[in-house]
Specification:
Number of domains: 2
Strand content: 5-15%
Helix content: 40-55%
Number of helices: 12
CATH superfamily of the largest domain: P-loop containing nucleotide triphosphate hydrolases
CATH class of the largest domain: Alpha Beta
Mean pLDDT: 88
Length: 271
């Protein structure tokens, strides 16, 4: 079986349930819409925000959608997606994105970072947004450096907005007494949840419509099973939906029924 065969069987103009969607094409279920709105406020206020959720809950997708709504001519986005770089790497990533060459010694790198952040605002008239993805993996030293970085003018005027994006353990870590000072600076806390049952059905329909199928392709029983097993988490819904399409195709069915969905569940959940 090839992707071309699958698309031809269902009459798709493109494969549904992929991550390669422009922000304006995303399905705006309630958790996503609320996350985008809250993140947008946080960025406008140049505040510190924490976005958490289980793997596949749509955290990064929501952040991407919120960033897409910013004026690109007046915004500089610093995306740091690898916590393994350590405390120095945190500063080096910011400096590099802002067009500088990171100084070797950390004692010189820290003021260089602050100066470039200030220059981006005061000399270039641009707003800086720092996004730390996989933030639940940040080390104690990195969280402390983040506190120091945000400490500069946060009480009166912040030189940048900052988003920490990670799994639920991130919120619990920051709540520890060690990070009380950082915790007090957080203006936004939002935990992404899964979709409701009705939203999972409209999510399926939305992606199928983008692929050229505006009619009903998944039976109600199949959609209910996919929702139950995925708990409404978008990535899990995508994986199960694709496998259900494959199972129905293999059985030469034109509709994804409950048995096709069960075959998908077995395929996805079996080690």
């Amino acid at each position: 079986m090839t992707i071309e065969n699958l698309q031809s069987h269902y009459g798709f103009t493109r494969m549904p349930f992929t991550n390669a969607l422009a922000p304006q094409m995303l399905h705006r279920h309630s958790a996503h819409a609320e996350a985008v709105a809250r993140i947008g406020w946080c960025l406008t206020e140049r505040a510190l925000g924490v976005i958490t959720g289980e793997v596949g809950a749509g955290k990064t997708v929501a952040v991407r959608a919120a960033l897409a709504g910013l004026d690109s001519s007046r915004t500089t986005i610093v995306y740091l997606g690898n916590p393994a770089v350590g405390a120095r790497g945190l500063y080096a990533g910011i400096v590099t994105t802002l067009g500088g060459t990171p100084r070797f010694h950390k004692a010189n790198l820290i003021p260089q970072t602050s100066q470039l952040l200030a220059a981006e605002e005061h000399e270039r008239g641009r707003n800086v947004v720092i996004v730390l993805d996989e933030a639940h993996l940040l080390g104690v030293d990195q969280l402390e450096e983040l506190r120091l970085l945000t400490n500069a003018d946060m009480d009166s005027h912040s030189p940048f907005a900052c988003l920490l994006v990670g799994q639920p353990t991130l919120r619990r870590r920051i709540k520890l007494g060690t990070f009380a000072a950082l915790d007090q600076r957080i203006a936004l806390r939002y935990a992404m949840t899964g979709m409701h049952g009705a939203e999972t059905k409209t999510y399926l329909s939305h992606h199928l419509k983008l692929a050229g199928r505006g009619d009903t392709l998944f039976s109600d029983d199949a959609a209910d099973l996919i929702h139950q097993v995925s708990r409404g988490l978008p990535r899990a819904v995508n994986n199960l939906a694709v496998q259900a399409l494959v199972a129905a195709f293999a059985a030469n069915k034109n509709i994804v029924d409950e048995s096709s969905a069960r075959a998908a569940v077995t395929e996805v959940t079996t080690d």
